Amino acid sequence: LEHPGDWFDPNRRTYARQQCLNCPRLARCGAVARQQQPTYGMWAGVWIDGDLPAKTHLLGLPARKAASTQS
Using alpha carbons only, what angle is made at residue 29 by residues 46 and 44, rounded to the nearest 5 degrees? Predict the structure, then answer.
């Protein structure tokens, strides 16, 4: 992201999530979130707002691969 604060701005979470889902470090970010137990922000494409226990199962899911087009 151009502005690191976007990871913690609720008004930018759609944009931040799009960036997360295309990031090669998505799985690592999820692992760090499970280890550090953050209370707020975008982590591995999951918006956390004091509800990490309810969303831990979503962290570390593989990113969706872009559909390939075949000629």
Answer: 20
Cα 6 to its chain centre, rounded Å, is 12
Does residue 60 contact residue 44 with C-beta atoms inside 8 Å? yes
CA distance to 9, 62, 67, per residue, from 57 (Å): 23, 12, 25
Predicted confidence (pLDDT) per residue in 17-68, tens digit = 999 999 999 999 999 999 999 999 999 999 999 999 999 999 876 555 544 4
> Secondary structure of the chain: what % helix, strand, coil (to 5)?
50, 10, 40
Q: Determine the residue type at 61.
A: L
Over residues 1-13, mean pLDDT: 88
Backbone angles phi, psi at 69, to 5 degrees: -105, 135
